[in-house]
Amino acid sequence: MARHLDSEAVHLFTRTPGLDAETVECVVTVPTFKRPGQLLETLRSLAAQETRRRFAAIVIENETRECAGAKAAAPLIEAGAPCGLVILAHQRGNCAAYNAGWETALRTFPDFRHLLVIDDDEVAPPSWLETMCLAARRLEADIVGGPQEPVFADGGRNSLKNHPVFRPPYARTGPVPALYSSGNLLLGRHVLEAMERPFLDLAFNFMGGGDSDFLSRAAARGFRLAWCAEAPVRETVPPRRLEPDWIRARSLRNGVISTLVERKKRAGERLGGARVVAKSLALLALSPLRGLRRLAATGSLSAAMYPVYVGLGRVLAEFGYANEQYREPDKN
Q1: Cα torsion for 231, 169, 141, 207, to the nearest 10°?
Q2: What end-to-end distance do the CA atoms of the chain give, in Å?
Q3: What are the entry keywords (predicted)?
Q4: What are the structural domains, with CATH classification, of the chain?
Q5: Out of 148, 178, 303, 323, which could bridge 253 as a Cys pair, Cβ 3.0 to 4.6 Å?
Q6: What is the rounded distance in angstroms from the CA atom of residue 68 to the CA atom of residue 111?
């Protein structure tokens, strides 16, 4: 039986018996939606972490009718493999699920130092959590991102690993000016305590990009960002995401998100909106040249078209275009 938490939209499904919340140093949030089998792989990889840090997982079930993920995760969580809790986030959407998990972490674990994020289609190596925490200390970073290495389900499209849609934004460990994804992320507790609520803007709920916007706002507040190349997670890429129309839609969406995030960033500037439009038009105008350079370097027409679609997406965003790929997750 689910038990009520502080928010009407969030309920506790189950937790590890005897979990000592005050001793937890790290919290790992795992949002899930209709991927019970993959979620189990994610949780088993967390249970296998090689670290002396006491950590707990929060599984955030965002499909609360059948609760397939919550039901699949419950035996592992109740057995303490890994320790933690399973919650039901009744408000649908990517951003709503993340917000529910992060708020629950703050309410439940009073002394944790680091919050990490892994998605339910990702698997972490045993060194992942420890490597991310050490990178935060060594680089004096408030937020650390890591690679999401694609594992293609059909095994035959490894050439797409270098496509901009799938390739990590950085290759080397160190401070970085920006981060774009929460799929492999570490946040200091002090970051969450300082940022405005909701953490992820619900305007991005079914489009994606709420994480990119959050990270942009965190950087603008002065939090230090870093990249840890030594802490990858493996992300399963289903055959659907290898089809040209999905890659094209994701490329357009990335352009839309880029405009929306920059528009929010420049909201208080004089002529900020005009500058965003000018940049979008310039990027679209230059995109064929950039595409030709990419074609010469990679030999891939799909990769060459990426800057064109991003530029087009940036301009279309000015006319209200929004590609909500998460609106129908079964097709995403």
Answers
A1: -100
A2: 31
A3: Glycosyltransferase, Transferase
A4: 3-240 (3.90.550.10), 244-331 (no CATH)
A5: 323
A6: 31
